[in-house]
């Protein structure tokens, strides 16, 4: 996997930045179209990451189910994605990529 920038920011700083810049849920700074490309490339091996995907690993939450969970927030996702979290590998996403992927995940909820 390409090892791109590994920003030396703490999760707290990152969560603060995103919290400060994200107005309403689902209305953050990320670009959902870019996030979809990232999700299809990096996440779809394990997660059902898009509407046209039908299979992935069992026991791994689909992105749509994440988007629809009451306890899942953009801040929570951003912290999760910069924190190593076995069994899920550390994806080494940049801050922008994380914002994009979160915007994409949140866009999947049936509203
Ligand atoms: C190698 C398999 C794998 C890949 C690739 C992967 N994940 Fe995961 N992911 C998992 C597993 C397994 C879990 C469940 C972890 C747990 O329950 O603690 C998980 C959990 C998550 C959760 C948290 C779910 C919750 O219940 O709070 C999020 C968010 C998530 N993944 C996002 C992503 C994103 C975004 C990508 C791509 C950038 C990605 N994952 C790529 C395996 C993977």
Description:
This is Mono/diheme cytochrome c family protein. Residues 30-109 form the Cytochrome c domain. The chain is an all-alpha fold and 111 residues long. The protein has a single domain (25-107), classed as Cytochrome c-like domain (Cytochrome Bc1 Complex, Chain D, domain 2, Orthogonal Bundle). It is built from five helices and no strands. The protein has helices spanning 11-21, 32-43, 63-68, 74-82, 95-107. Helix 1 (11-21) runs antiparallel to helix 4, helix 2 (32-43) packs across helix 5 (95-107) and helix 4 crosses helix 5 (95-107). The protein is globular, with a radius of gyration of 13 Å. The termini are far apart. Bound molecules: heme C.
H/E series: HHHHH
Tell me the name of the CATH class.
Mainly Alpha
Quote the beta fraction: under 5%
Number of alpha- plus pi-helical segments = 5
| Overall pLDDT score | 80
Gap between N and C termini, in Å?
35 Å
The major pleated sheet works out as: none
* Poorly predicted ranges: 8-14, 17-26
Tell me the total number of β-strands.
0
Instruction: Give me the CATH architecture, please.
Output: Orthogonal Bundle
Helix percent band: 40-55%
Radius of gyration: 13 Å
> Which fold name corresponds to the CATH topology?
Cytochrome Bc1 Complex, Chain D, domain 2
Small-molecule components bound? heme C
What's the number of domains?
Answer: 1
Instruction: Please identify which CATH superfamily we are dealing with.
Output: Cytochrome c-like domain
